[in-house]
Every structure is written in structure tokens, then in C-alpha cells.
Predict the structure.
Amino acid sequence: MKTKLGLLYGGKSAEHKVSMQTALAVIKALNLEKFDIYPIYINVDGQWIKGPQLTAPPENISQLEFSQAGQLSTASLTPALFQAEQQENAQLDVIFPLLHGPNGEDGTVQGLLELLNLPYVGNGVLASAAGMDKVMMKNVFAQADLAQVHYVSFIKSEWQKDQEAACAKVEAAIGYPCFVKPANLGSSVGISKCRNRAELQTAFIEAFQFDRKVIIEEGVVAREIEVGVLGNDEPECSVAGEIVPKKDFYDYKAKYEDGDTALIIPADVTEEEYEEIKDMAIRSFKALDCSGLVRADFFLTKEGKVLINEVNTMPGFTPFSMFPLLWKHTGVEYPELIERLVNLAKERHAEKQQIKYTF
């Protein structure tokens, strides 16, 4: 029996284009002898458009942008949207949310799928929400006693009320250089490196365009090491990889447009360093109650100190993405990786069905 797989992609997010790239890569990798694929596109206005079953991979993702005549508002979302277009009208077996950023990776869509009682790939509501909000994530990491850089955060109204005090707080607690980031966004969107107050003030303005909350992190001289984590209650780690950006930091353009960076897999780390990174990756995965997958990002200082930077609960699957490359070098090819994620989704959903909701 083939698995009826619904692919959610697009989304009302600044990372809409990243999601489109991810969807195309996943579709091209899926084995049509094992999967019936049903695309569900969410446009930038948040409207959901269901397409017919794919009988062959498209040449480009624009072929999957369906006519406006078929669009649905969120108010009309019902389980019927997730029914396969077949005579038996069987429900889709698994939903794969290929969504990045707010309104997709942050627990919102996951909550909808929970209400519809549908199996879905990846992290649940809590892990997705906490993993998206960098402030909450770092608070959880601190509670789990995971070493990380110093940080402070502000909401927009707090900053607007006294911008001078906000800058002074950053300088006293962190100093320069520092990084200013939207708290609820990924793919390096809206991130700035600051070396002085003028750059800090500009960075606040830039970051607040994308979120009502920003986080400011201490800048450290360190290598950027990443590992992939795969599993549910017993997660496992991939080999480590290193990102060597040619610019000051690994920004959006380097990630998705010009590939202006070097990805070194496996990373040149000692066995002791890898074991510490692996241990911290699994501890962070469990601290957030993750499931399915995460990419865990670390700093490794020249003194050999390991600091966790963040986890990404839905890492990209583009040609430049680290997560599938890490698993490829670990011995898990891309199609197999997708199949394992689908099976993990079924496993987690089956476990949830054993929970009693009446007494």
C-alpha cells in the first residue's frame, strides 16, 4: 500500500520562498512507487489551495502554484481539505509541513493538524513554538544547564519607549560585537552584526520589521558546527558539519541564493568535541520535547568550549541545506531520510492515540 502524503508548502512568512525551494526538492526526491503526493499550497496571504495528486515531479515549483479560483480561507478549513482525490476518498496518511518561519514552523499549523487528528512530520506544538522563539528556546536551554552565549531581549514597545536605555543595556550586558535577531524568524532574515551603537540602532529597526520581539546575542570568535538529530524518544545524531562563511556571518543570501559559503562534512573536530556536541544536541532535543528532526547549531571556540546556539525544528531541504547533507555523510540518503521522517510521524501519532481523553 502506498502512503498518501500531503505536502504543505509556501506559507504566510518571510521564508515563503525558502519553503518553495524545500517543497520542490522533497517532491523530486520522493519515490512515486511508494507515495501518492498531494500538494497543498499556502499563499502569502494565508489562503490554502489544494492541488490534484502529482503523477510526476514538476520541472519547477511555480507549476504547483494553483489558480486563485481554488483557494480556501482558513475559516473554511475542515478535515475534507485533507481527503485524497480518489474514489475511496481515503484520508491522507501523513502531512509533511514543509513550512519555515512563523505561521508554519512555530506550532500554529501543528496545532491545526493536532485538532484534525492527522499524523504529521516533525515537531509538535510546544517544541515548534519554543524552537521558533529564540528567547524562549534559550530560556529552556538555560534551565537544562546547556552552555550558551550571553543574551538579552526586548519587545518593540519597550524599545520604542526608551531606545537609549535599550542600547545601554546591550552595551552593559553584552558589549560589541553582538548580533541582533528577530526572535521568531529563521534563515538569517533580519539579522545584523553590530560593532558600535550606530549599527546597533540600525539593527534594532531592521529586526523589528520582522517581529515584535528581538534578541541580542554576544558575538564570539568561534567555528560554527552543526549536527542533525533524527528520532522521537530515542534520537540519534548525524556526523558533525562546519559552516565557513566567506562573509561576516551565514546570511540569507549565502544560504539560499549564491551559496557563498563552504560546508565541510565531516567537520574537523576531535572525538571528545564531537561527543560533547552530540550529548548537548540530544539534551536540547529532549529539553524541548522534540520529535522527528532538528538541526542543532553550535559554536566551538579555539579553547575547545562548546556552546549551543540554537535548534531549527524544520531545517531546509534545499540543495544548499546542511541537514540532508549531514545525514547523507552519515549513510542515510535523501529519499531514505524522508521515508524515515514519515515513519517517525506515524509512530508518534500512533502513540498519541493511546492517550485517554475521557475518564
Q: What stands out?
A: Confidence is low (pLDDT under 50) at residues 67-76.
